[in-house]
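Checklist before submission:
- one chain only
- standard amino acids only
- sequence pasted in full

Submission:
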Amino acid sequence: MQTHLSLRLDGTPLATNTSSPRHIELGLDTFGDITLDATGAPKSAAHVIRDVVEQAVLADTLGLDYFGVGEHHRDDYAISAPDMVLAAIAGQTQRIRLGSAVTVLSSDDPIRVYQRFSTLDAVSSGRAEVILGRGSFTESFPLFGLDLANYEELFEEKLELFTELLKEKPVSWSGNLRPALHQQSVYPAMESGTLKTWIAVGGSPQSVVRAAHYGLPLMLAIIGGEPAQFAPFAELYHRALKEFGQPGQPIGVHSPGHIAATDQEAMDELWPHYAIMHNRIGKDRGWPALTRAEFDATAGPNGALVVGSPETVAKKITRVAKTLGLSRFDLKYSHGTLPHASLMKSIELYATEVAPRVRANLSQE
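Returned file contents:
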C-alpha cells in the first residue's frame, strides 16, 4: 500500500483530541481464556465456549452494545473460530452487535472471512461487525502454512482485497500472494448494507495511516502503558482521514479490565489470574515475571488496566473517552484463569453500574 502521506509521529507533541463524545457504545471482548472450575481445575475448551455464550446472553439482556470474540490457536484460549461462537450467540440474543476481537486477516482468506461475517449478519438480522488485525500471536502462520517473512505483505495485500469486497460488486483484483480475481462475485450479499469493518491497531503509526487510507474505523488496542499516550495516534488518524479525502470515522478502544464492589476487591480478585496469563505469554516472549507492584501501577489511575469499583472504572473510561474522542469502548473482561462466576459479576456491574455512570458523565459536557 502506497499512501504518500505527509504525516509524522516523531515524538513532537500533537494536540490532544478533547472533544467529548455525547454518546458512546460500550462493549465487551473475550478471547475465551481457559478458566477454572469450582474445584480449581481448568475447564475444557468446550465448557469455556458454552460459558462465553452465556456471558454474551447476559450482556445482551443487560443492554450492552457489542460483544467481541477473539481468535487464537493456543491451549490457553478456547476459541479458534470466533464466527462459529458468534453464530451460536446470535441465536440466543436479540439486539447486541456481534463481531471479532480480532480476526487475524493475515493468516486467513479475505473471501472466506467476508462470507462468514456476511452469513453472521444474516442469521443475526444485521448485527455483525468484523475487526481486522494482524494479531499479537503468530501461531496461526505455521498452522496454515504461511511464511512469517511475509508478515507485513500478507496483511496489506489481504486488507486491500477485503476492502474491495466491501463494495459488494464483482471484484477484479490481483496481488502477489494469491491468485487474481476477475469480475468475481462473492456470496451471500449483505442484507443490511456494508459490513462494518474496523482496523485494530497496537502501537504502529503506519497501521493508523493504513486505516485512514481505506476510510475504516480505528480500534486501538491499549493493553499497556498509559491511554493518554495514544492521543497522538487519534490525532494522526483524524489528520490522515482529511488528507486522504475520507469522511470522518469512529475511534474505539479495546482495553483489559475487571470490576468488583470495591477497588481492592477487584485488584485482589484479578491479580493472581492476570499474573498467570501475563507470565505464561511472557515466558514465550522473554518478558520478566510480573510483580504485584507493576500490576498495581498498570491498574492505577493512569494505567491501561481498567480495574476497580464501578465508580472508579466509570471515571477511567470517561477520561479515556474524552482524551481520545471515542465512539466505543470495549472492555476485555476475560483474564487467564479468572472463573466464570467472577466474569459474570464483572459483566453485570459493567452494564448496570459502569455504563450509566459513563453516559451520565459524558452527557454533562
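Reviewer check: The first strand starts at residue 25 and ends at 30.
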